[in-house]
Design the sequence.
């Protein structure tokens, strides 16, 4: 990342960064990752605050680290801040992006969830929960399949990516049917990948 | 680790009073931190295993219900879920503590990783290992759905309708790649209306 831009950030730019994430928060239906395309448009294409490489690395690192995937947003903020100075501005970037993406959605979710819990005997609330159950289950399985498809080597066809699908499918079966600790499976996946078998 | 055979029966028949729950705010914080740290490529699979099957703070049915709300609401799903679980036991304070537990330590770790990244990114083994872990993580998420599908047996819609809605959702998301919002509002809306009519007034 030698071509990282050198940015000069004033209060106005920081505010703009914060407000952009604030406005994205309520749009992040289906998880923060669903707003990634818009973040790319804003940070890379429009403002030129990040390079493409920095953007992609931020997502890849957050996916491979422990913790919620939403931390990719912290890394985007960190990299914007690093481009605008150093570690201190990096931390400021983390702080502003995370607060921006979290404040509106957590406020709304908390309020709605508390309301739903207080009114859990209402027919409409029960209907919502019962009706959504099969959709939730199917969504999880579908998400697993989409992520598995995204893991193949770039340019390979579905058939050429069979080792990835085999690994994902085997993992799903093992987790479904046994109680083996999940970290062993992740370690096995890492080892297979390290030796180039995946 | 608890045994498999007492799993399903015990969970559903346990009265609310004796159900295990977090002892204190620090228990909540530590529990969510440990959850987050086990979650490579997403925390959901670990949350379901830990909170439902090990700690039993919630039943499979409650987990599905909460996950539905967590998905519907804007914001990161596991963040929403931690807010809801924490809020259930300790109110707003609990919600904030669970959220902080989920994010604080992983945030520090991910920043350290970002600093280290440049030195190791070029190594082909590292790239391969990341790909292998991501493939396993995808399997973990799919397996979470499979494990939860057992809870549909008690659904008011009945197994057949559940299967219809489930297959439609899967096809729309995984095969047709429709936007999530359409599927939630469309298929989810129909399913909720069907459930509404099946529930006794």
Sequence:
């Amino acid at each position: 990342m030698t071509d990282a831009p050198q940015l000069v950030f004033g209060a106005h730019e920081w505010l703009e960064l914060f407000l952009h994430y604030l406005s994205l928060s309520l749009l992040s239906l289906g998880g923060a990752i669903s707003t990634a395309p818009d973040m790319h448009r804003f940070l890379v294409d429009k403002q030129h605050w990040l390079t493409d490489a920095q953007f992609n690395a931020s997502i890849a690192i957050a996916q491979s680290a422990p913790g919620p995937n939403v931390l990719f947003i912290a890394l985007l903020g960190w990299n914007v801040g690093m481009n605008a100075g150093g570690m201190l501005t990096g931390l400021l970037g983390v702080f502003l992006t995370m607060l921006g993406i979290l404040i509106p959605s957590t406020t709304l979710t908390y309020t709605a969830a508390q309301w739903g819990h207080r009114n859990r005997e209402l027919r409409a609330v029960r209907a919502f929960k019962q009706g959504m159950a099969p959709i939730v289950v199917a969504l999880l399985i579908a998400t697993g399949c989409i992520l598995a498809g995204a893991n193949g080597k770039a340019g390979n066809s579905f058939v050429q990516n069979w080792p990835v699908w085999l690994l994902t499918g085997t993992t799903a079966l093992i987790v479904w049917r046994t109680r083996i600790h999940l970290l062993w499976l992740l370690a096995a996946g890492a080892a297979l990948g390290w030796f180039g078998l995946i | 680790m608890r045994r498999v055979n007492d799993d399903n029966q015990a969970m559903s028949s346990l009265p609310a009073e004796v159900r295990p729950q977090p002892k204190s705010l620090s228990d909540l914080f530590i529990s969510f931190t440990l959850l987050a740290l086990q979650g490579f490529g997403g925390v959901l699979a670990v949350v379901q295993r830990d909170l439902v099957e090990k700690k039993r703070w919630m039943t499979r049915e409650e987990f599905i219900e909460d996950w539905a709300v967590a998905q519907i609401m804007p914001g990161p799903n596991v963040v929403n879920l931690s807010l809801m679980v924490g809020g259930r036991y300790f109110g707003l304070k609990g919600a904030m503590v669970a959220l902080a537990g989920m994010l604080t330590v992983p945030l520090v770790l991910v920043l350290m990783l970002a600093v280290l990244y440049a030195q190791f990114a070029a190594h082909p083994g590292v790239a391969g290992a990341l790909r292998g872990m991501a493939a396993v993580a995808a399997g973990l998420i799919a397996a979470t759905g499979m494990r939860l599908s057992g809870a549909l047996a008690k659904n008011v819609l009945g197994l057949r309708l559940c299967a219809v809605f489930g297959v439609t959702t899967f096809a729309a998301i995984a095969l047709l790649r429709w936007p999530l919002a359409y599927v939630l509002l469309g298929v989810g809306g129909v399913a909720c209306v069907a459930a509404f009519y099946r529930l006794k007034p």
Chain A has two domains: 11-114, 151-194. The mean pLDDT of chain A is 86. Chain A is about 70% helix and 0% strand. Residues 126 and 132 of chain A are 10 Å apart (CA to CA).
